[in-house]
Amino acid sequence: MSKMKRNHYVPQSYLRAFAADPDRREKIWRFGKNEGDPELKPIDKVAYRHYLYVPKDETGQRDYAFEVRLSALEQWFGERPWELLLTEYVDLGDETIRKMVSLLAAVMYLRNPTSLEASNNVHRQMVDLLNQSPELPQSFEYKGKTYPADTSGWEKFRDGCDEELKKTWIAGVREAGWLAELLMTMRWSMVVSETPGFITSDHPVTVVHPSLSFRGFNNPETLVIFPLNPYRLLLIDHRMNEPSNQYYPVDDAMASYNYTIWRNANDYMFCHRNPDEVLAELVRDTEKRGFA
């Protein structure tokens, strides 16, 4: 019996920067939100789902086209510009750097299983709403203009199976350019630590808002946190009145950043050191700030 195909929604080439064995870069520490003890896991056995990016076509055969496209993009994690970003003080305003990082971040955010779940939820809500109407709408309004609605494919849309819904989601991830372009226009800064400390998660591109809910990437208070390796954390925001493309020392904020990444993970923290150490630091920081 052939093995089931693993599709890693957090690229292995990205996670290797957080490897617990930096010489071989084969293993990483993992800790779950809900159960279990910290585990030292092979990187090829974390952050994956079977056949996530390879839906079946009309003949029942698997379509590997999108997986191949993702694999090509992931090669960028091994390219010289990315390596320099992890170790040197490169110009964060450089267009080549911005294009590379923005597209990687956009695709990593949209290819995550939570994005698939959100897409499926929108589908269910639309079907439930339209099923309550006596007839399908023949037009819709957008920004004050009225457009005709094509309802010829309604039955196929309404009755879409899991494979069809996955194809719809994949089509959306393929259009990640819109998000990459938006990220390029925002303010960038890098937080740097002289000792390895930053963690990552199974949803590495962390989007946060003071309201603790998702308000969209365009919201002026939205902050994007992207841990690059244990030494560097990229911040992307809309604070255009502050200096851009700067490098800042992490000082005493390491625990705060790690808590935010951990809080917004789907299920797992990934890091180069035993997660018990990370959790102990979070507790000490909470006590120091008077929240415990």
Mind sketching the topology for me?
Elements: E1 6-8, H1 12-15, E2 27-32, E3 39-42, E4 48-50, H2 65-74, H3 80-87, H4 95-110, H5 113-131, E5 139-142, E6 145-148, H6 154-158, H7 162-174, H8 177-185, E7 187-192, E8 200-201, E9 206-208, E10 223-229, E11 232-237, E12 246-249, H9 254-263, E13 268-271, H10 275-288
Parallel strand pairs: 7-12
Antiparallel strand pairs: 1-4, 2-3, 2-13, 5-6, 7-11, 8-13, 9-10, 10-11
Description:
The chain has ten helices and 13 strands. β5 (139-142) and β6 (145-148) form a beta hairpin. Strands 9-10-11-7-12 form a five-stranded mixed beta sheet. Strands 3-2-13-8 form a four-stranded antiparallel beta sheet, with helices on one face. A two-stranded antiparallel sheet has the order 1-4. The termini are far apart. The protein has helices at 12-15, 65-74, 80-87, 95-110, 113-131, 154-158, 162-174, 177-185, 254-263, 275-288, and strands at 6-8, 27-32, 39-42, 48-50, 139-142, 145-148, 187-192, 200-201, 206-208, 223-229, 232-237, 246-249, 268-271. The protein has one domain. α4 crosses α8, α5 (113-131) crosses α7 and α9 (254-263) crosses α10. With 292 residues, it is α+β, with helices and mostly antiparallel strands.
